[in-house]
Amino acid sequence: MIELRNIHKAFGKKEILRGMNLSVPKGESMVIIGGSGSGKSVTLKCILGLIAQDKGEIFIEGKNAQDATDRDAFLARFGMLFQGGALFDSMSVWQNVAFRLLRGTEKKTPLEAREIAIEKLRRVGLSPDVADQYPAELSGGMQKRVGLARAIAADPEIIFFDEPTTGLDPIMAGVINTLIREIVVEMGATSIAITHDMTSVRAISDKVAMLYDGEIKWTGAVGDMDTADDPYLQQFITGAPDGPITTA
Amino acid sequence: MIAALATLGQSTLGLLAAIGRVCLFAFSVVTHMLRPPFYIREFSQALLNIGFFSLPVVGLTALFTGGALALQIYAGGARFNAEAVVPSIVSIGMVRELGPVLSGLMVAGRVSASIAAELASMKVTEQIDALVTLSSNPLKYLAVPRVLAATLTLPILVAVGDSIGIFGGYLVGVNSLDFNAAGYLKNTVTFLELWDVTSGLIKGAVFGFILSIMGCYHGMNSGRGAQGVGRATINAVVSSSILILAANYLLTSLFFTS
Ligand SMILES: Nc1ncnc2c1ncn2[C@@H]1O[C@H](COP(=O)(O)OP(=O)(O)OP(=O)(O)O)[C@@H](O)[C@H]1O
Ligand SMILES: [Mg+2]
Prior knowledge:
The complex is a heterodimer. Helix content of chain A is 32%, strand content 25%.
């Protein structure tokens, strides 16, 4: 269970989050939708403690995230796919994927780690020959999938996906959507995904939350999304240029 | 008037705050050095990058400087018939002052810039955030190996620079100033004291610490975008050069004034 209570975050004078509330029950898949620059990535970074919120609390299984004394153990429960991939360009692909497996308390031998990495790469639709390539040699969509493989490599209980299908062709996007759904169902992981892609929303989410103007404007089950009468949500789903969301 | 004072006060406060942040950063790097986990692979990589690959730069700088020094001291010495001091002044000047300072500055240009640029682009592309989420402390994983490697290898680079600089002086002395080869070497060694050499090596270690800390600090605190990377690199080189020169003055007055 992840709970955000009244989160505020401003960068300088620019207020990004102004009293955001959100709760994601254990084992559920939440998708956050919202316009570009509305603070979706910032929200994930606040939960992980990469950015400190100005106000408000975040609870993971009832415990305040800021009280976690052992940061490493706290973070070991998470997997994160960054929007830009954030692959380490000084390391080969398999070393990226196996990064956590090669270090820390539950360290595996390089051989085992490599095997797991190759298996995870296969799951995201990448062949074993990319394992020894460097991230700079891959296309944007391939990098994204390596990032995804790295996020799931250590079988985390909570996984964040920041725009997992952006930059992928429709078929690969479909594969990744199915994969994310499988991971959440099989591993019982709790997940928060960010996406702009409505097909993806329908494929991977149990619940949807719409972030606008620093707050969650609407949240509910994915099945209720189309019939909800929230004007913000409807405009976002249909992509209508006119409505309460201004683009200027 | 009041506005001017306010600006002055504000920039003074800003400067003090920056100094405080750098000191805190340096302090936490040092404390992380002492606690596991230790990243041996990253450390050996840093030794290679910082130490080994700086050898040509340091060596060439020292060679030419040693040669020029011999010429200058000869010309200056000739004004009061003291040309014979060339070997000893070259060696003393080299090991006490020019060896450490020039090595420090050249390595600052090369290494602190590359550390800052590398870490800043890691920061900009969220690789540092990714490290954190993969339960690796960026200070431990990125800063400690580099700072340790620079602090340990700079004295070695200084020693190499000292020797090559003295050799440069010797080449010039023997080939164009008509010194006797054996006599030049003898004079070089006779007047050189152990403390002359060790003080220079200690300076080297301090400079290595300074330049790597500044590289890491500016890299890890870089602003956003390509511009942020550029600015981090400039700040790292400028601040480490100035701090090296200031530290050199402090250490010299500490070591050699009683
Ligand atoms: N470290 C930072 N410093 C200053 N401003 C920031 C920082 N991180 C994010 N911002 C600002 O916060 C706002 C929200 O950023 P965020 O990355 O969360 O957007 P987003 O909702 O993920 O958008 P997108 O869908 O385009 O990825 C943006 O205006 C961005 O400029
Ligand atoms: Mg984003």
